[in-house]
Amino acid sequence: MNSNGYARFVLGLFTCLFSSLLHAEPVLVLGGFINESNAATHLQRVEARLNDQGVLSQISLKGAPFYRVIVPIKGRPIEPLKQRVRDAGFEGVWTWETDLSTPQLPKTQLVKQAPSIQEPPQAPRETSFARLSLAPVAEPSQPKRSPRAQTNISGYLKTYGVIQDSVTNDFFEIDTIYQAQNSGRLMVESFTDRMVFQFHYELSPLSVSRSVGGDLQAFNIVGDSYRVSDLKTSLTSDAASKTQLYQNLDRLNIQLQLDAGDLTVGRQAIAFGAARFINPIDVFLPFDVRTFNTEYRTGVDAIRFQRPWGELGEVDFGLVLGSDADQATSAAFVQVRNNMGGRDFNFSLIEYAQQTLIGGGVQSELGDLGFWLEAAYVDGDSDYARVSTGLDYAFQEHIFGMIEYHYNGAGSQNPDDYLSLYQTTPYQRGGVFLLGENYLIPSISVQVSPLLSVALMSIVNLSDQSAYTSIAAEYNVAENFYMDFGLYVFSGTALTLSSDQTLGLGSEYGGNPNMFFSSLRWYF
Q1: How far is CA 178 from CA 175, 288, 356, 489, 517, in A?
Q2: Does residue 284 sit in helix, strand or coil?
Q3: CA dihedral of residues 298, 254, 202, 226 (deg, nearest 10)
Q4: N or C terminus of the chain with fewer C-beta within 10 Å?
Q5: Domains by residue range for the chain, with CATH
Q6: What is the DSSP letter of 66?
Q7: Angle, CA of 151, 116 and 273, to the nearest 5°
Q8: 361: how many CB neighbours lie within 10 A of its CB?
């Protein structure tokens, strides 16, 4: 090949590579299917609940066609879009890059067939089997097929390296603490024509450089709340050891897909609410906002039935069982969701721990702004109200901001009362973890590139002027492999001594040490 031919070859090669990179766009994957009709059904559901344009994409997997339901990101920040998808009830989402300039599959006529066969190991996120049913439609005239089963095994490995700053005050001194928070989750999910079985088990080794005198708020240890019985949480015989091993049987349920709706029995994830940061209606084991590993919501033991209501609505009711299925530790709920006039409404009634919660919310748009409002009132041994409302706005194509105000009627304006709140029903059984009354929560996220996102969030306690601020970055190193960096900064009045010589919190966040963390996450 002469020099001119070689130059043309190199130029053509770079043109092809550049064209491929130019056309490849990041997307969110909301499900994978081996049946095109099932994929089309799921696509219709995704578009209805998100009010967004989805795409049905076909790839070849082991020589056979495989169908993915995807939502183009179109320059939007990935993390807020993921949160919006999760709020709509689709918990199993992950990022992918594909060329959307090529023709995609048409939306096939929707028929009710076998339940979706979820994506094999390429999909690294949790699949939500609940809230996936549509109202029954006419069956096509074709011979019935015998039930078939498919079992998928997936999971993740995560490690968080944490540096906790030293603490020095008038009462004690704690040196810098180093933590290694690790987690491995195994997920087995099996499908037949009318049934889904789900099993998740997690092992979490924790190593700390020195013993600490309290809980690690950035590490979630599952208790026995809203579980009939459970495995022993700690597998370490020496409770004083700096290295501990925890286990969590987080999912163990079976879902029957009936003509009237979906019946799920066993340990499962149940969430409520429309707010972005703090959900007043949510009482079933929500995470503290400072916890690192919050990808999978903690499972509770429940019997749940979800029935479609019209095109976009759903009636959801169930029984959540506590220790020994005792009435005092159990709960019952009814949740109704629907879309009217382009606005998503929800209503909830929850009975728990001799408390009755009545709540509701709305998600809508105010011009170019997204808007949400969620409120709950609790009546019983403890009477209080909680409200969250906020706005979001896309400043530019890659910059997205949100701000939320939260009123916590279960809290107090006096920091001297904070420690005693932990013994009250709202904090023991009602999912409340904030201690003050009034909060402002601003956040902004920047999509630096299709693979790199940076987010800044702060929770400001307006009652005591303390604040918790997090700065985090996520980088998609390779397929199913992620790297994170983050910094937690706390400000406010430190520990104080009351008039009766009792040590107390001077503010909610002032006594917390700053923390830096980095993590590696691999999904299989």
Answers
A1: 10, 21, 42, 16, 10
A2: coil
A3: 30
A4: N
A5: 1-106+116-123 (3.30.70.1070), 124-135+148-523 (2.40.160.100)
A6: E
A7: 105
A8: 25
436-479 pLDDT tens trace: 999 999 999 998 998 999 999 999 999 999 999 999 999 999 98
d(CA 359, CA 350): 9
| Mean of the per-residue pLDDT values of the chain | 80
Per-residue pLDDT, 6: 40
Return the amino acid letter for 488: Y
The set of residues, in sequence order, having a beta carbon less than 8 Å from that of 259 and lying 6+ positions away, is 136
The pLDDT tens digits for 195-217 are: 989 999 999 999 999 765 555 66
Q: Is the dihedral of CA 419, 425, 428, 433 positive or negative?
A: negative
CA distance 438 to 30: 36
d(CA 136, CA 119): 24
pLDDT tens, residue by residue, 258-277: 989 999 999 999 988 888 89
pTM: 0.73
Here the tokens at position 443 are 């956040």
165: DSSP letter:
-
